[in-house]
Design the sequence.
Protein backbone atom coordinates (compact mmCIF):
# COMPACT_ATOMS: atom_id res chain seq x y z
CA UNK A 1 0.00 0.00 0.00
CA UNK A 2 1.41 3.38 -1.03
CA UNK A 3 2.21 5.93 1.67
CA UNK A 4 2.90 9.63 1.36
CA UNK A 5 6.60 9.31 2.12
CA UNK A 6 7.34 13.04 2.16
CA UNK A 7 4.70 13.71 4.82
CA UNK A 8 5.77 10.69 6.82
CA UNK A 9 9.44 11.66 6.71
CA UNK A 10 8.69 15.11 8.10
CA UNK A 11 6.64 13.58 10.90
CA UNK A 12 9.38 11.09 11.71
CA UNK A 13 12.03 13.81 11.75
CA UNK A 14 9.93 15.98 14.05
CA UNK A 15 9.41 13.11 16.48
CA UNK A 16 13.12 12.37 16.49
CA UNK A 17 13.76 16.00 17.38
CA UNK A 18 11.14 15.82 20.12
CA UNK A 19 12.88 12.83 21.69
CA UNK A 20 16.27 14.52 21.43
CA UNK A 21 15.28 17.85 22.93
CA UNK A 22 12.55 16.81 25.40
CA UNK A 23 12.95 18.08 28.94
CA UNK A 24 14.03 15.38 31.40
CA UNK A 25 11.27 14.20 33.71
CA UNK A 26 11.49 14.43 37.48
CA UNK A 27 12.33 11.27 39.41
CA UNK A 28 9.50 8.76 39.59
CA UNK A 29 7.48 8.47 42.80
CA UNK A 30 7.59 4.67 42.76
CA UNK A 31 10.00 1.97 41.68
CA UNK A 32 9.03 -0.79 39.27
CA UNK A 33 8.86 -3.23 42.21
CA UNK A 34 6.47 -0.91 44.05
CA UNK A 35 4.25 -0.72 40.97
CA UNK A 36 4.28 -4.53 40.78
CA UNK A 37 3.31 -4.69 44.47
CA UNK A 38 0.41 -2.28 43.91
CA UNK A 39 -0.82 -4.42 41.02
CA UNK A 40 -0.51 -7.59 43.10
CA UNK A 41 -2.51 -6.01 45.94
CA UNK A 42 -5.36 -5.05 43.61
CA UNK A 43 -8.42 -7.25 43.55
CA UNK A 44 -11.73 -7.55 41.72
CA UNK A 45 -13.29 -4.95 44.02
CA UNK A 46 -10.61 -2.28 43.77
CA UNK A 47 -8.18 -1.07 41.16
CA UNK A 48 -4.45 -0.63 41.58
CA UNK A 49 -4.19 2.88 43.02
CA UNK A 50 -1.64 4.69 40.86
CA UNK A 51 -3.60 7.88 40.28
CA UNK A 52 -1.50 11.02 40.09
CA UNK A 53 1.76 9.11 40.48
CA UNK A 54 4.92 10.12 38.68
CA UNK A 55 5.91 6.94 36.82
CA UNK A 56 8.03 8.71 34.24
CA UNK A 57 10.72 6.68 32.49
CA UNK A 58 9.94 3.48 34.40
CA UNK A 59 10.17 0.19 32.51
CA UNK A 60 6.65 -1.23 32.92
CA UNK A 61 6.90 -3.43 29.84
CA UNK A 62 4.73 -6.52 29.86
CA UNK A 63 2.87 -5.59 33.06
CA UNK A 64 -0.86 -6.21 33.43
CA UNK A 65 -2.19 -2.73 34.14
CA UNK A 66 -5.69 -3.52 32.97
CA UNK A 67 -8.35 -1.63 34.96
CA UNK A 68 -5.64 0.13 37.00
CA UNK A 69 -6.34 3.68 38.14
CA UNK A 70 -3.68 5.73 36.37
CA UNK A 71 -5.72 8.91 36.13
CA UNK A 72 -3.47 11.99 35.89
CA UNK A 73 -0.40 9.76 36.20
CA UNK A 74 2.82 10.98 34.60
CA UNK A 75 4.06 8.27 32.23
CA UNK A 76 6.44 10.51 30.31
CA UNK A 77 9.00 8.31 28.53
CA UNK A 78 7.78 5.21 30.37
CA UNK A 79 8.26 1.86 28.67
CA UNK A 80 4.91 0.15 28.23
CA UNK A 81 6.02 -2.31 25.57
CA UNK A 82 3.53 -5.17 25.45
CA UNK A 83 1.70 -3.85 28.54
CA UNK A 84 -1.96 -4.73 29.10
CA UNK A 85 -3.96 -1.53 29.68
CA UNK A 86 -7.44 -2.69 28.70
CA UNK A 87 -10.08 -0.80 30.65
CA UNK A 88 -7.45 1.23 32.50
CA UNK A 89 -8.31 4.70 33.78
CA UNK A 90 -5.81 7.03 32.11
CA UNK A 91 -7.97 10.14 32.33
CA UNK A 92 -5.68 13.16 32.09
CA UNK A 93 -2.56 11.00 32.03
CA UNK A 94 0.64 12.14 30.36
CA UNK A 95 2.02 9.59 27.88
CA UNK A 96 4.35 11.90 25.98
CA UNK A 97 7.25 9.96 24.43
CA UNK A 98 6.08 6.75 26.15
CA UNK A 99 7.08 3.47 24.50
CA UNK A 100 3.79 1.80 23.57
CA UNK A 101 4.73 -0.89 21.07
CA UNK A 102 2.32 -3.85 21.34
CA UNK A 103 0.50 -2.16 24.25
CA UNK A 104 -3.24 -2.82 24.42
CA UNK A 105 -5.37 0.21 25.36
CA UNK A 106 -8.66 -1.36 24.26
CA UNK A 107 -11.55 0.15 26.20
CA UNK A 108 -9.22 2.40 28.21
CA UNK A 109 -10.32 5.84 29.41
CA UNK A 110 -7.84 8.33 27.93
CA UNK A 111 -10.08 11.40 28.11
CA UNK A 112 -7.98 14.53 28.28
CA UNK A 113 -4.75 12.53 28.07
CA UNK A 114 -1.62 13.72 26.27
CA UNK A 115 0.11 11.46 23.73
CA UNK A 116 2.81 13.59 22.18
CA UNK A 117 5.24 11.58 20.09
CA UNK A 118 4.75 8.13 21.70
CA UNK A 119 7.24 5.55 20.44
CA UNK A 120 5.28 3.02 18.36
CA UNK A 121 8.08 1.31 16.45
CA UNK A 122 11.71 0.31 16.81
CA UNK A 123 12.42 1.99 13.46
CA UNK A 124 11.48 5.26 11.82
CA UNK A 125 9.51 3.34 9.23
CA UNK A 126 5.78 2.59 9.34
CA UNK A 127 5.12 0.46 12.46
CA UNK A 128 4.90 -3.21 11.45
CA UNK A 129 1.76 -5.11 12.54
CA UNK A 130 3.76 -6.93 15.22
CA UNK A 131 4.58 -3.64 17.00
CA UNK A 132 1.40 -1.63 16.64
CA UNK A 133 -0.50 -0.67 19.81
CA UNK A 134 -4.26 -1.20 20.01
CA UNK A 135 -6.92 1.36 20.94
CA UNK A 136 -10.10 -0.50 20.03
CA UNK A 137 -13.04 1.16 21.79
CA UNK A 138 -10.77 3.47 23.78
CA UNK A 139 -12.07 6.89 24.84
CA UNK A 140 -9.70 9.67 23.81
CA UNK A 141 -12.26 12.47 23.98
CA UNK A 142 -10.55 15.80 24.59
CA UNK A 143 -7.12 14.16 24.31
CA UNK A 144 -4.13 15.85 22.68
CA UNK A 145 -2.50 13.41 20.26
CA UNK A 146 0.44 13.83 17.92
CA UNK A 147 1.50 10.32 16.94
CA UNK A 148 2.44 7.89 14.17
CA UNK A 149 -0.69 5.73 14.31
CA UNK A 150 -0.33 4.38 10.77
CA UNK A 151 -2.18 1.08 10.49
CA UNK A 152 -3.25 1.13 14.16
CA UNK A 153 -6.52 -0.50 15.28
CA UNK A 154 -8.76 2.38 16.45
CA UNK A 155 -12.11 0.80 15.70
CA UNK A 156 -14.94 2.33 17.68
CA UNK A 157 -12.61 4.71 19.51
CA UNK A 158 -13.98 8.05 20.73
CA UNK A 159 -12.16 11.24 19.81
CA UNK A 160 -14.91 13.73 20.61
CA UNK A 161 -13.43 17.26 20.79
CA UNK A 162 -9.95 15.72 20.59
CA UNK A 163 -6.98 17.83 19.52
CA UNK A 164 -5.52 15.86 16.61
CA UNK A 165 -4.49 18.67 14.32
CA UNK A 166 -1.54 20.97 13.86
CA UNK A 167 -1.19 23.59 16.59
CA UNK A 168 0.00 26.59 14.61
CA UNK A 169 0.69 28.51 17.82
CA UNK A 170 3.13 25.88 19.08
CA UNK A 171 5.58 24.80 16.39
CA UNK A 172 9.02 24.77 18.07
CA UNK A 173 10.22 21.91 15.85
CA UNK A 174 8.27 22.52 12.69
CA UNK A 175 4.82 21.40 11.65
CA UNK A 176 4.04 18.08 13.38
CA UNK A 177 1.06 16.19 11.96
CA UNK A 178 -0.79 13.11 13.09
CA UNK A 179 -0.28 10.12 10.83
CA UNK A 180 -3.40 7.94 10.74
CA UNK A 181 -2.64 6.59 7.28
CA UNK A 182 -4.14 3.11 6.78
CA UNK A 183 -5.45 3.16 10.38
CA UNK A 184 -8.74 1.40 11.11
CA UNK A 185 -11.11 4.06 12.43
CA UNK A 186 -14.27 2.22 11.45
CA UNK A 187 -17.18 3.37 13.58
CA UNK A 188 -15.00 5.85 15.47
CA UNK A 189 -16.54 9.00 16.93
CA UNK A 190 -14.49 11.98 15.76
CA UNK A 191 -17.25 14.52 16.14
CA UNK A 192 -15.96 18.08 16.61
CA UNK A 193 -12.38 16.81 16.66
CA UNK A 194 -9.64 19.07 15.32
CA UNK A 195 -8.00 17.10 12.50
CA UNK A 196 -6.60 20.02 10.55
CA UNK A 197 -3.75 18.87 8.27
CA UNK A 198 -3.87 15.32 9.70
CA UNK A 199 -2.81 12.43 7.44
CA UNK A 200 -5.69 9.98 6.97
CA UNK A 201 -4.71 8.59 3.58
CA UNK A 202 -6.02 5.04 3.02
CA UNK A 203 -7.66 5.11 6.48
CA UNK A 204 -10.77 3.04 7.13
CA UNK A 205 -13.45 5.50 8.26
CA UNK A 206 -16.54 3.52 7.34
CA UNK A 207 -19.44 4.55 9.58
CA UNK A 208 -17.27 7.08 11.43
CA UNK A 209 -18.84 10.18 12.97
CA UNK A 210 -16.98 13.21 11.64
CA UNK A 211 -19.78 15.69 12.20
CA UNK A 212 -18.44 19.14 13.03
CA UNK A 213 -14.84 17.95 12.65
CA UNK A 214 -12.14 20.32 11.43
CA UNK A 215 -10.65 18.59 8.37
CA UNK A 216 -9.01 21.69 6.92
CA UNK A 217 -6.22 20.50 4.58
CA UNK A 218 -6.52 16.96 5.96
CA UNK A 219 -5.17 14.22 3.70
CA UNK A 220 -8.06 11.80 3.09
CA UNK A 221 -6.78 10.48 -0.22
CA UNK A 222 -8.02 6.93 -0.91
CA UNK A 223 -9.71 6.79 2.52
CA UNK A 224 -12.86 4.69 2.92
CA UNK A 225 -15.61 7.03 4.16
CA UNK A 226 -18.49 4.69 3.36
CA UNK A 227 -21.51 5.72 5.43
CA UNK A 228 -19.53 8.29 7.43
CA UNK A 229 -21.24 11.40 8.83
CA UNK A 230 -19.65 14.65 7.62
CA UNK A 231 -22.46 16.97 8.71
CA UNK A 232 -21.03 20.40 9.47
CA UNK A 233 -17.44 19.27 8.98
CA UNK A 234 -14.87 21.67 7.53
CA UNK A 235 -13.47 20.15 4.33
CA UNK A 236 -11.78 23.27 3.07
CA UNK A 237 -8.75 22.26 0.96
CA UNK A 238 -9.00 18.66 2.20
CA UNK A 239 -7.60 16.02 -0.15
CA UNK A 240 -10.39 13.57 -1.06
CA UNK A 241 -8.66 12.27 -4.16
CA UNK A 242 -9.70 8.63 -4.62
CA UNK A 243 -11.71 8.57 -1.37
CA UNK A 244 -14.76 6.30 -1.21
CA UNK A 245 -17.78 8.49 -0.42
CA UNK A 246 -20.56 5.93 -0.88
CA UNK A 247 -23.47 6.67 1.45
CA UNK A 248 -21.73 9.60 3.12
CA UNK A 249 -24.12 11.70 5.21
CA UNK A 250 -24.18 15.47 5.48
CA UNK A 251 -21.77 16.20 2.64
CA UNK A 252 -24.13 18.93 1.42
CA UNK A 253 -23.82 20.71 4.78
CA UNK A 254 -20.04 20.35 5.06
CA UNK A 255 -18.12 23.61 4.97
CA UNK A 256 -15.74 24.08 2.05
CA UNK A 257 -16.75 20.85 0.30
CA UNK A 258 -16.54 22.74 -2.98
CA UNK A 259 -12.94 23.62 -2.20
CA UNK A 260 -11.87 20.06 -1.36
CA UNK A 261 -9.72 18.20 -3.83
CA UNK A 262 -11.67 15.39 -5.52
Sequence:
Amino acid sequence: MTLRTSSFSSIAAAFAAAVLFASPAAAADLSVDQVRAALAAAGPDHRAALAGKNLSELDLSGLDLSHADLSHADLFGAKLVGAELTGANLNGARLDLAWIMRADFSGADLTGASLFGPVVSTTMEVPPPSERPRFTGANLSGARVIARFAGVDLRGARFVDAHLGVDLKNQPMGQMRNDFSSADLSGADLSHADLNRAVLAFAKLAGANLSGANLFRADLADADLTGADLSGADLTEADLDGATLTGVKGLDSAKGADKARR
The first strand starts at residue 114 and ends at 116.
